[in-house]
Amino acid sequence: MALLLGSLMTSFAQCDNWSISTAVVAATCKDNGKITVTLNNAGNLDSLLYQLEAITGGGTNITQSTSNVLEHIRPGTYRLTVTGLCGSTPVLKTAEVTVNGTYVEPTFYLSEAGRAFGTCKSGKMRVNIQNGIRPYTVVVVSAPVNYTGPLSFTTDTSFVDIDSLPAGNYEISAGDNCGSGGVKSGTITSIDFDHYDFYFSRAVISCDQVVLPGLHMYEGESEFLNNASPISISYKIGNYPATPYYTAGNVPIFYTLPPGATADSLYDKEIVINVKSTCGEQMTTTTTFSRPYPSLGITLNCNVSANIKYYISPADFCFPMYLTVQNDLGQIWTKSIQSTEYISGAFTDLPFGNYTVSAFSKDSVKLSDVQLRLAANPSKSLGVYIYSSAGEVGNDGAIGFQVANNAGFFRPNTHVRIISPVEYGSETIIDYDYYTSVYFETPDGPSGRKFTMGDYVFVIDDDCGSDTLRLHVDE
Question: Is 288 helix (H, G, I), strand (E, B) or coil?
Fold first, then answer.
């Protein structure tokens, strides 16, 4: 009996006297970590199986592997289990193993970096890539049939530009050096030469010369004006000869009229704009050389008379130009404008009534008629209004105030005050006569709070008198 017990204890010791050790290779990609398992004092074991179960992170699970080298492991902490037979006795050992790794899978997105010009292959797609392991590989998976450029690109930077693209739909794949990535869809649109894509501006610099824009586009401007294969542009105004083709860009084109002609003769004329691409395509659109007009405003002289103010930009007119003011009684006032700098002035002390303000060119061509009514400014034309002042974003229902002159401009040196509640007392001084409204938003009230519920009294003082406005603010 003693001999049998001793034999069993020896057998148990031989089957249990083994251990596990591991050598771990960190993951540098998504799942390229490796665990090599070494068994110590396990010469009497056979039928060995290796199992790996994720505890945290990772996600790699291996069951019943006969190899002691466990590969394609993601970063994380794992429970390693080794089973085998010692003779006919099943044996088992476990260990906790951590596979390190800081790899982040790549992400990418597509952006249209340039539009195609009509049917020309001038579009550009930018592939922006983040994370992963460089170099990156970008592949054009599908494209319009007329795309004939390269299909594969490799880069060590964070983006790839795919040039010479015709308009259409594309599928682009992007992946890193670990083989991770994906496929996304993108579209190259085309510039259609219409009023949505192009706009026109001009300036008169002298009576026989105007400035035309090099070219302006609402979208895609930088791609066409600054690329290596720029487009060109030509203008034709009315019956005058067309300009040569110029390389399109932000450099203005100076258009000199034939001898004896002036800029006044261009008003209302059709402008034909021809744009030619380097791929041989030409597009045409038209616009009009519009008539200019002055900016006008009204100020009052203490409800006794009124002034009509005018503002003139020299880029719009051939000088001298003329302004006339005529009322319903047939009274006429005229001014000759000679300057070529930005001009402002006024027809002053005009009696109340209905007026027509007319602008004439150097050649006495009528450019514009504007109807104005000059009337006294009763107090009821002043108003105070509430606006939200960020109350809609949780600012405790706070509000702001707009004090407006609904009949025209405030007079210079107008004082607008809040006199009640006194803790919200505030004052704004209007120094110039081109303001129609003033605003109160952040007072020096209790704890710096914005205006809130209550009864408010506003006083408006100028050299013509004083007006009082009252306003009740509810929750």
Answer: strand
